[in-house]
Model the fold of this input.
Amino acid sequence: MNEELKKTIAEICEVVKSLPASVQEKAFEMLLNYELGSALTPPTKSPIFKENDAEEAQQQEGPEASVQSRSGEDLVAGDLHLKARKFLEKQELSLGDLNELFYKEGGQIKPLFEDLKTTKASESQIRLGLLSALRGAIQNGEFEFNGEDVRQQCELRKTYDSTNFKANFRNNKRLFDKFENYDKENPTIRLSEDGRAELAKLIKELQ
Done:
């Protein structure tokens, strides 16, 4: 160790002695790094500072970092079932259109949309059904949805009309394949060609 370095360390020790014991070790590391010309290099963390350092890092990262840690990924072509890709081609839609509505997280397709662009409970119900069918088609190629899942979604969105729930499906039966009446015991509903066309219109509207 050369004399200049010894002198530097001695001066740092004098400064550190005047500080509270709880921060002396970290202060010494920071000052030494600074004097050695590596102020931009984060000092080695000592175990006694782990809790405080973690809290400080969380404050510096802020809410954006928290959102980022929970964020998912865009869908890619490989995530789409062949039938879903054919649907996009036929309806002149793109993968980007789907990424406005859904995202991928943990291998699952999750909804990204919030606003259904309607204030009518009946229309909200039908739109949730169409979007649920799209979500299913992305994963397994089947443009169908579970009516009871839609019921739950309506309840969560405060748009559930218990009196007219079955009637809303019946009044829009042209959108569904071979549909006559809603059966709670057999709640799977498949989209008709008209239903797929209506879904395509909805995708564009929600952009």
User: Anything to note?
Assistant: The chain has a mean pLDDT of 82. The longest strand covers residues 102-105.
